[in-house]
C-alpha cells in the first residue's frame, strides 16, 4: 500500500495533481481542501495517500492532512457513499465544518453537497455522529506558496463541474464568487461555501 508521498509537485488541475518522487510521476485525485493549500508547481510537497484497488480500477488519492484522509475513509463506510462523494464532501466543507454539520444533524446543509440526498444525509448523521469527534490534525508537510492560474474563472468552473455541480449552477456560483485578482482556489472556496448556505 502507498500511505505517503514526498516529492515535487509537477502539476495541479483540480481534481488531479501529479507528484514526482525520484523520477516516478504519481497521479492523484485530491479534494479542494487539499488544493487550497498546495504550493506552486516545482515545490516540494508531502501528501498522506489512500490507495484504492477495485475489480476494474486502481486509484490513488492525496491529502495534505491526516484528518482529511481519515474523514475520506470514514464516510465511505456509510452505505451508498463512494470515493467521488467522499471527495465532494471534503471539497465542500472542512473536516471541522463537516463534523459540526453531522453533530448538529443539519440535513439541509449536507444535501447541498453534490451526490448527497436526504436519505444519504440521514445515514451519514446516524452512522458518523459518534465517529466525527476528534477528527483533527495538521498539515502533512508543504512548502507554502500558490500559483496564479492563467484563467482562474475557467479553472474554477471546470473543477466545480468535476465535483458534480451542474453547468447552470456552476455559472451562478462562479459569477457570485469571482472577484478581480482571485485565484481559482479562492473562487472555488467561496463558491463551495456559498453552495452550503
Automatic annotation (TrEMBL):
Entry's InterPro entries? Answer: DNA_helicase_Holl-junc_RuvA_I, Hlx-hairpin-Hlx_DNA-bd_motif, NA-bd_OB-fold, RuvA, RuvA_2-like, RuvA_C, RuvA_C_sf
The Helix-hairpin-helix DNA-binding motif class domain covers 73-92, 108-127
- Claim: ATP-binding is one of the keywords in the record: no
Q: How does it assemble?
A: Homotetramer. Forms an RuvA(8)-RuvB(12)-Holliday junction (HJ) complex. HJ DNA is sandwiched between 2 RuvA tetramers; dsDNA enters through RuvA and exits via RuvB. An RuvB hexamer assembles on each DNA strand where it exits the tetramer. Each RuvB hexamer is contacted by two RuvA subunits (via domain III) on 2 adjacent RuvB subunits; this complex drives branch migration. In the full resolvosome a probable DNA-RuvA(4)-RuvB(12)-RuvC(2) complex forms which resolves the HJ.
In the UniProt record, the gene name given for this protein reads: ruvA
Specify where the region named Domain III lies, as residue ranges: 148-197
GO MF annotation, one: hydrolase activity
* Chain's role: The RuvA-RuvB-RuvC complex processes Holliday junction (HJ) DNA during genetic recombination and DNA repair, while the RuvA-RuvB complex plays an important role in the rescue of blocked DNA replication forks via replication fork reversal (RFR). RuvA specifically binds to HJ cruciform DNA, conferring on it an open structure. The RuvB hexamer acts as an ATP-dependent pump, pulling dsDNA into and through the RuvAB complex. HJ branch migration allows RuvC to scan DNA until it finds its consensus sequence, where it cleaves and resolves the cruciform DNA.
Instruction: Please provide the record's keywords in A-Z order.
Output: Cytoplasm, DNA damage, DNA recombination, DNA repair, DNA-binding, Hydrolase
User: Pfam families of this UniProt entry?
Assistant: HHH_5, RuvA_C, RuvA_N
Q: What is this protein called?
A: Holliday junction branch migration complex subunit RuvA
Instruction: Write out the annotated subcellular location.
Output: Cytoplasm
- Positions of the region Domain I? 1-64
For this protein, the record's Gene3D superfamilies field holds: 5' to 3' exonuclease, C-terminal subdomain, DNA helicase RuvA subunit, C-terminal domain, Nucleic acid-binding proteins
* Comment on protein domains: Has three domains with a flexible linker between the domains II and III and assumes an 'L' shape. Domain III is highly mobile and contacts RuvB.
Q: Which SMART domains match?
A: HhH1
Give the similarity note.
Belongs to the RuvA family.
Task: Answer whether the UniProt record assigns the keyword rRNA processing to this protein.
Answer: no
